[in-house]
């Protein structure tokens, strides 16, 4: 079946017409349901940090409210800005990768015998202005 790419007006339309059938899914809804790892958040046993930006154009800000509660090992951080895996910030007059700095901090906490991780495990969700 030929698809007129120019007639696709949104990402969901693209997933309906291209992504889903190309990979054996019925439609975008079937693709989103079966390909998403979100339904597994409650089963994660290893310390996991999930970073998400409220302004991500592909994943809506309320996404995690529709998913199962994360397991105790999961900490979800939602930053106000970051787009879709951008997470850049201004220092002086230059852009710097906030994501790299944030991940380095998290890894250092985990390496610190897990003490910092264990003290934060009761917080499943945090929001920042980054």
Overview of the molecule:
The chain is α/β, with parallel strands linked by helices and 130 residues long. A hairpin with a 2-residue loop joins strand 3 (88-91) and strand 4 (94-97). The longest helix has 14 residues, at 98-111. It contains four helices and five strands. The model has no long low-confidence stretch (mean pLDDT 82). The protein has helices at 11-22, 28-35, 98-111, 115-120, and strands at residues 48-53, 74-79, 88-91, 94-97, 125-128. Helix 1 (11-22) crosses helix 2. Strands 1-2-5 form a three-stranded parallel β-sheet, with no helix packed on it. A two-stranded antiparallel ribbon has the order 3-4. The radius of gyration is 18 Å and the shape is globular. Helix content is 31%, strand content 18%.
In short:
The protein is an alpha/beta fold and 130 residues long. It has helices spanning 11-22, 28-35, 98-111, 115-120, and strands at 48-53, 74-79, 88-91, 94-97, 125-128. It starts with 10 loop residues before the first helix and ends with a strand.
Secondary-structure topology with pairs:
Elements: H1 11-22, H2 28-35, E1 48-53, E2 74-79, E3 88-91, E4 94-97, H3 98-111, H4 115-120, E5 125-128
* Oligomerization status of the protein chains: single chain
Please estimate the helix content.
Answer: 25-40%
Indicate the low-confidence ranges by residue numbers: none
Shape: globular
Q: Report the β-strand fraction as a percent range.
A: 15-25%
Q: What structural class should be given to the helix and strand makeup?
A: alpha/beta
Number of strands: 5
Arithmetic mean pLDDT: 82
Instruction: Summarize the helix and strand pattern as letters.
Output: HHEEEEHHE
Number of helices: 4
For the largest sheet, list the strands in their spatial order. Answer: 1-2-5
Biggest sheet descriptor: 3 strands, parallel
From the alpha-carbon coordinates, what is the Rg to the nearest angstrom?
18 Å
